[in-house]
Amino acid sequence: IRPAAPRAPVAERLTEAEARAILGVSADATAQEVQAAWRRLMARAHPDQGGTEGLAARVNAARDRLLKS
Questions:
Q1: Which residues contact 54 (CB under 8 A, 6 or more apart)?
Q2: pLDDT at position 35, please?
Q3: Cα–Cα distance for residue pair 18/9, rounded to 1 Å
């Protein structure tokens, strides 16, 4: 069995367009709009709220990708 290849963090694998699509924000969205979209989505995506760890990770990665661009 071959060891798994190291994977880039999820945020680094997302394109900016994918991140914007996940959060539902436009290309000219401000940091405040990105943060508001993240908060709104995490209220449903968080595992404690009926979401999944994978979904929450993608929403977090999308926020990180857009705020670090």
A1: none
A2: 98
A3: 15
Which stretches of the chain drop beneath a pLDDT of 50? none
> Tokens for 13?
């694998």
Residue type, 61: A
R_g of the chain computed on alpha carbons = 13
d(CA 20, CA 62): 7
Q: At how many degrees (to 10) do helices 53-67 and 16-23 cross?
A: 120
Q: CA distances (Å), 1 to each of 5, 6, 8, 9, in order?
A: 12, 15, 21, 23
User: How many whole angstroms separate alpha carbon 55 and alpha carbon 60?
Assistant: 9
Q: What is the pLDDT of residue 2?
A: 65
pLDDT number for residue 1: 73
Please state, in angstroms and rounded to a whole number, the distance separating the CA atoms of residues 23 and 15. Answer: 13
